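Field log, afternoon session.

UNIT: design team B
ACTIVITY: writing a sequence onto a fixed backbone
BACKBONE:
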């Protein structure tokens, strides 16, 4: 009794099987790479402030960095700040090779960034945004990265909330003291006017002296006249006495 040997498969069938195996070997890595590329973007975020204290009017920089970033093509960063204490001071700065913009609202700032053209997605450790904040109040002010939305180059998205926060102590400007108004300058006391004292006019000889006439002859004549009158009176008195005798 003879054993029957099975016939070998046709040559065409062997060729098809070899082609399928080659195709699987060729496209399997590409499929795995595509699946890896379609993964959600990821990153670990940190928030830092340029200073822990500031005076009213100063600028504080809030910087968000990402570590372990993978295929990040666009993102939105939402900052919440203490209203009445901090406000946006200027446009934010983002990575090169993309466009960065901001939308301000009371107590909130949304920073958006997207890559441009054929720029690759961000990966590794990246500074995602630097936001200037102006101090407009006093006391403890809170800066929070309240939410993050990430978009990959394939359109996959990922979101995080309550990511990180920091506090800055603000000091108000000192109130200027009112300057004293210049006092009225005291007017100098009136200087006394020179008083003219009247000198009493000298009588007698002083009057004659003022005329420029020498009074000596007149005085002598008067004395002689008085003496003659006295002698005459004596003679008259003796004569009367002789008559009586």
């Amino acid at each position: 009794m003879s054993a029957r040997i099975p016939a070998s498969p046709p040559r065409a069938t062997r060729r098809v099987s070899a082609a399928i195996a080659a195709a699987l070997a060729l496209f399997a890595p590409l499929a795995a790479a595509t699946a890896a590329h379609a993964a959600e973007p990821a990153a670990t975020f940190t928030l830092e402030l340029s200073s822990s204290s500031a005076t009213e009017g100063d600028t504080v920089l809030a910087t968000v960095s990402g570590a372990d970033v993978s295929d990040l093509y666009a993102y939105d960063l939402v900052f919440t700040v203490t209203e009445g204490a901090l406000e946006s001071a200027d446009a934010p700065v983002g990575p090169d090779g993309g466009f960065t913009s901001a939308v301000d609202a009371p107590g909130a700032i949304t920073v958006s960034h997207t890559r441009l053209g054929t720029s690759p997605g961000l990966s590794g450790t990246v500074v995602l945004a630097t936001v200037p904040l102006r101090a407009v109040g006093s006391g403890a002010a809170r800066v929070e990265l309240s939410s993050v939305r990430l978009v990959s180059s394939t359109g996959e998205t990922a979101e995080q909330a309550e990511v990180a926060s920091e506090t800055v102590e603000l000091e108000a400007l000192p109130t200027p003291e009112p300057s004293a108004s210049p006092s009225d300058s005291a007017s100098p006391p009136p200087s006394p006017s020179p008083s003219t004292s009247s000198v009493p006019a000298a009588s007698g000889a002083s009057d004659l002296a003022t005329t420029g006439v020498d009074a000596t002859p007149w005085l002598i004549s008067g004395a002689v006249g008085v003496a003659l009158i006295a002698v005459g009176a004596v003679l008259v008195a003796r004569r009367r006495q002789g008559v009586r005798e």
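LOG NOTE: Residues 42-171 form a domain with the Immunoglobulin-like fold (CATH 2.60.40.680).
NEXT ACTIVITY: expression trials, pending approval
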